[in-house]
Amino acid sequence: MLILMLINTLVVPLFAHPKVTEVDYGTFMSMTESQDLGLVEVENNQIIFTDKAEEKIYKTGRMDDEGLIERLYQSGAKFSSEIVEETSPLLSLLVSWLLPIAFFVILGQFITKHFMNKTGGNSMMFNMGKSNAKVYVKSSNGIMFSDVAGEDEAKENLTEIVDYLHNPRKYEEIGAKMPKGILLVGPPGTGKTMLAKAVAGEANVPFFSMSGSEFVEMFVGMGASKVRDLFKQAKEKAPCIVFIDEIDAIGQKRDGRVGGNDEREQTLNQLLTEMDGFEGNNGVIILAATNRPETLDPALTRPGRFDRRVPVELPDLKGREEILKVHAKKIKVAPDVDFEHIARMASGASGAELANIVNEAALRAVRDNRSCANQADLEESIEVVIAGYQKKNAILTDQEKRIVAYHEIGHALVAAKQTNSAPVQKITIVPRTSGALGYTMQVEEGNHYLMSKEEILNKIATFTGGRAAEEIAFGSITTGASNDIEQATKLARAMLTRYGMSEDFDMVALETVTNQYLGGDASLACSAGTQEKIDEQVVALVRAQHEKARRILEENRAKLDELSNYLYDRETITGEEFMNILNG
Ligand code: ADP
């Protein structure tokens, strides 16, 4: 539009009229009187005239001037009607319409040519015609199964898919159908996206990646159209992999809520239809990842759609060690680093956290001007990732520091004295940016899949050990135990409501977990009366463990003092030092 307007105001007048000078009416009158006029053309609202030699053309507004024609006649001017020639209609059409159109056509061709050159080759992007909001990444990111450490079960499961994509004939001959969809479920940062990319990398096929939220649009029907487009593209490029990340964004249960999300439901319906619509064995495999499998619509997870569910769990000890090694290859590490030890310390960390730990270690090495990261870097970075950076300028008063020392030794001592508790790895009272003033790092010897009732009780006792130590040593209590209280309560409540570990409620589920992979929130499912009972029992349970912790500490009062003073002086002690003093 802008270009059109510019052409019309600047270019068209150039073609249309010879130059006309505008003058005031006085000039016109004096020229008339001095008989300087050549041709004159009187129009409705303007007068156009030339000088005697008919070279210059002037124009002026028309006034209510009686006797004008008379005077003009007397001045010898010739009346004319064609001083300014009308531009031919053909020319004006040409200039005002065809020129801009030609301009746009040329511009369009230039852009298309430029664009085609880019996408025609091995570019990363496909443009999707109608709904151009999509970006699909081709397979060549180079991620292979070897880049994904641990997760052996998931890899085994997916290897079959890769094999199928390499050699579909083998499967067709027997009449086996490949699953159409595979759902990767697991906590965040365990490598689901990586696994999907690795499948594409191994199979060397195009990889269409899209996040579930990208389907959700403001207008109803747009998401559905995107799904259609996606599948159309995929079928053209088959064999290929379509990866939908965070599928819960569109795959949530359709419920009859008033004012439900129309757009989302339409998108889901389209997805359901598309997944049913293409025949088996056509080479399109759909991978989807989610942290919240329980929110997915049952129609989506039924066989024939996402008929396989591959759990991608938090890595175990060996998995953690392997992940650390994979990531350590990308940085320079000292040859004597004990990865197993690091993996043991980082219990419960996800793949993403482990990658972060390795990177933090490398950053720390750079900060200290060393050429490679060593064991201490890795150990410190675990603490950074778990508890935040050391707070260099946090000044605790002497009394506070003493209380924190007692608190932490309280935890460790209670843990060590209960045979089933894991020994401590490290105790520190250096404040951290996360707000922790100190912490006790427990290390589990092997992998734990089950926890006995005694172990849970001991764990609760360990949580209360910090507060118990404060009570015994100082006779007063502080706010330092807030996190312990939270954890102990959570465990005690879970014992009663989910693990069936109480006399009164037997094996009845009083709580359902709603977010298994995202923190494990639970919602109560019982009557108000039962809730009251649960609350009472939780209090009783925690109180009993608190008493037990206090008893243990009182029995070992001398050791408590000795260890606390030692920690107060050193600020950080290892599990070994701790055990030496305890048993010494
Ligand atoms: P998710 O999709 O499960 O949330 P990602 O696949 O995006 O997690 O993983 C995030 C990052 O964590 C990856 O880029 C990778 O560096 C690291 N990571 C996670 N799991 C692993 C693993 N098993 N092996 C190697 N690296 C991993």
What does this protein look like?
This protein has 584 residues and is of the alpha/beta class. It has helices at residues 2-16, 25-33, 68-75, 89-120, 152-166, 168-174, 192-203, 212-215, 222-237, 248-251, 262-277, 298-301, 317-328, 339-345, 351-367, 375-387, 398-417, 453-474, 482-497, 528-555, 557-570, 575-583; strands spanning 21-22, 37-42, 46-51, 57-61, 78-79, 181-185, 207-211, 240-245, 284-290, 306-311, 424-428, 439-442, 511-513, 522-524, 572-574. The protein has 22 helices and 15 strands. It has a five-stranded mixed sheet with strand order 1-4-3-2-5, with helices on one face. It has a five-stranded parallel sheet with strand order 7-8-9-6-10, sandwiched between helices. Bound molecules: adenosine-5'-diphosphate. Adenosine-5'-diphosphate (ADP) is lined by residues 148-151, 188-194, 289, 323, 326, 351-352, 355.
